[in-house]
Amino acid sequence: MRMNRRSLLASLLLPMTVSRLPGHAWLARADAPAAEPSWRHGIAHFSDLKYPAGFKQFDYVNAAAPKAGSARQIAIGSFDNFNILVNGFKGRIVFGIELLYDTLMISSLDEVSSKYGLLAEAISYPDDFSAASFRLNAKAKWHDGKPVTPDDVIFSFNALTSTDPQMGAKYRQVVKVEKTAEREVTFTFDAPGNRKLPQAVGELIVLPKHWWEEAGPDGNNKRNPSDTSLELPLGSGPYRIKEFSPGRRIVYERVPGYWAKDLNVNVGRNNLDEFSFEYFRDPAVAVEGFKTNAVDWRTENSAQYWATAYNFPAVTEGRVILEEFPINNIGGMRGFAFNTRRERFKDPRIRLAFNYVFNFEEMNKQLFHGQYKRTSSYFEGTELASSGLPTGRELSLLEPLRDKVPAELFTEPFTNPVNGDTNRVRDNLRQAFRLFTEAGYKVNGQRLVNTTTGEPFTVEFLSDGPFAERAFMFYKQPLERLGVEVSIRTVDGAQYAARMRDFDFDVASYGWSTSLLPGSEMRGYWGSWASAQVGSENVVGIRDPAVDVLIDQTIMAKNYDDLVACARALDRVLLWGHYVVPQWSYNKMRTARWNKFSYQHPLPKYALSAFPTLWWWDEAKAAKTR
């Protein structure tokens, strides 16, 4: 698909050229006069910006919010790293580290996909989206007082894409980054037409080149971007690290001279003087810590705890508030993910058999108090989720791929098997056994074995904690009824990250979050290129030409209706590939807080809880909780 786009680009450029002149003027024709770049204060994907140039503040903030107080939050596990460059695949990054850094642009939380200038006061790009230039704010500076420069942006891009495979996948289409003026940096893309790529580049976290190139704590060697570190990092953002205890506690404080504190995009934000994360190894202990007022805020991910653990006096007295916030800004898939690099999981019939065995309905009842619904899309919870049979534009996208996708995609709506009662469970186990048989397995002495090699069918579920372990334990019993040898391996966070990075697993619980306007990150999620990249998010190992084509078509969509059709077609192909056994979803964020804080009602649609960014310390409320 990349070759096709390059060929198309070459043909389009035959009668014209695109020249870059001083000041970064764009030429529509080779003989056209130079024009000044069109600088914009923000960028939207398929719609107009809500906020005009020179706007005073976002509508959803309280500009008069007091700057005071502190908040203590819960984190589960431990940490041993402050280096955001190796986040997610080396060591255990500390919670909240992103608030030390500013990005080029910042999202508006009451628009689907709009970004406004932060480090970059303006953005410019040609009509074909083949490049993007950012003009840095002259006031932008690091916490040590030095200015943020184009060299910092270039260093950050190169460091992030070389150390983090996920960033490498996200920015794979960027072929050049260069300084084009004193405060201007330009990103050149490998092909035109990707409308979201300028926005994606605007999300870039910018790091201080001069700090990274200085000698580290030993005084001799430069700091290594590829190493974990607990050295206090230098940032440019609203907060800095005040103090920490490795693996136990991290405290952030608001930077008094933060360069962007009065910028329109920051008015009414970052109101707390301090906030901290208190680390707990065990979620049950964390809940008890919350009850004793040792922490102020908890995001509750356990349906069981939400149903049973918050019936205590402070709740009935109003000193603790339980509140759910709707999830409108993201969708996605979470499931039992197969490592298709392993020979026994290459056959989609085997993977489908696992879905027939999974009794979601009984698990939801016994473990989750009936709170969840079954996930049935890679874009669950969004308009991009497919349903029924493909028609119209979706069908026209899939027709050229008919010989590359399962035939059932055109004749059967995708549905997960339904269990929940004895008869259905029995019927689904029969279907699973039939699929195992078709894939070359038989029962021998109560063990499922390969008919050719005689090797037993084994599976190891890789777990990183008690929640995943409980689900795997529930799954184990029906698989063993079929003769599958099941083991569950629970490892600590660092080992889990390392094994997932190296694709050293059979089946793991894994998820992909998708935005309302997905872009190049999908190549890192499900694209063939990423399947061989150690540390990528294509943990399943998908190598499917139809998936690659539809990812590219979704990324290159020229309008929203086309994007929806492309994403739904992609969703169908992924679902019918049976790469995961879909798990469950809940469309709200569950939170518990000691009643010490306030926020402006209503919160913006795409904010989740926005704690603590949009909240403020309420002294009158706090006095009643003491």
Task: Reconstruct the topology from this structure.
Layout: H1 2-13, E1 42-44, E2 70-76, E3 105-107, E4 114-117, E5 120-124, E6 131-136, H2 150-163, H3 165-170, E7 174-181, E8 184-189, H4 197-202, H5 209-212, E9 239-245, E10 249-254, E11 274-280, H6 283-291, E12 297-300, H7 303-308, H8 313-316, E13 320-326, E14 330-338, H9 348-357, H10 360-368, E15 373-374, H11 392-398, H12 422-438, E16 441-444, E17 447-450, E18 458-463, H13 466-481, E19 485-490, H14 493-501, E20 507-515, H15 521-526, H16 528-531, H17 545-555, H18 560-576, E21 580-582, E22 584-585, E23 588-594, E24 597-598, E25 616-617, H19 619-625
**Radius of gyration, CA atoms, in whole angstroms:** 26 Å
Q: Going across the major beta sheet, what is the strand order?
A: 19-18-20-14-21
Classified in CATH, the superfamily of the largest domain is: Dipeptide-binding Protein, Domain 3
Distance between the termini: 62 Å
Segments where pLDDT lies below 50 for 5+ residues? Answer: 1-34
